[in-house]
Design a protein that fits this description.
The protein is an alpha+beta fold. The protein has three helices and seven strands.
Length: about 150
């Protein structure tokens, strides 16, 4: 092989390795993305069913129930228009309260209950996560236009 051909083969191998590395990084990045959806989006079917997502809104008053073992909690998250039942196994944040903003991360179960793997609560009395506040505002606007 001539030196020119060896150099070309070396450069081509480098480009192929770089392409494979970029493809692997992009694939890992894509599979770890978690998108935010409101309860109205999930009920309307616009949220993916086979991926981990985040749902935000308000914890509906009177719906928090502790099940048997003390770690399993069931509650409803609402955007004031639609409501989704949520099940969570674990310790809730200290600031978790009924009627306050919350974002839950997890997947929809076949029975229509959202199985949360993480619960994020507000950090002061006036705070609601921006995405959740926007979703509640949009749902209220949509409800007013329908009426």
């Amino acid at each position: 092989m001539k030196p020119r051909h060896k150099r070309f083969a070396f450069i081509a191998a480098g480009v192929v390795c770089l392409g494979v590395a970029v493809a692997l990084v992009l694939n890992a990045f894509q599979s770890n993305l978690v998108f935010f959806h409101s309860p109205s989006d999930v009920i309307a079917g616009t949220a993916p069913k086979d991926r981990t997502i985040r749902i935000g809104g308000l914890v509906q008053t009177g719906t928090v129930k502790r099940v048997g073992d003390g770690l399993t909690v069931q509650f409803d998250v609402t955007d004031t228009v639609k409501t989704i039942a949520v099940a969570y196994l674990g310790t809730l944040p200290d600031l978790f309260r009924e009627g306050k903003g919350v974002v839950v991360q997890g997947r929809m179960r076949p029975d229509g209950v959202f199985q949360a793997s993480e619960v994020l609560a507000k950090h002061d009395e006036n705070y609601m996560p921006p995405d959740a506040a926007h979703a509640v505002e949009q749902a209220q606007k949509a409800a007013k236009t329908i009426q």
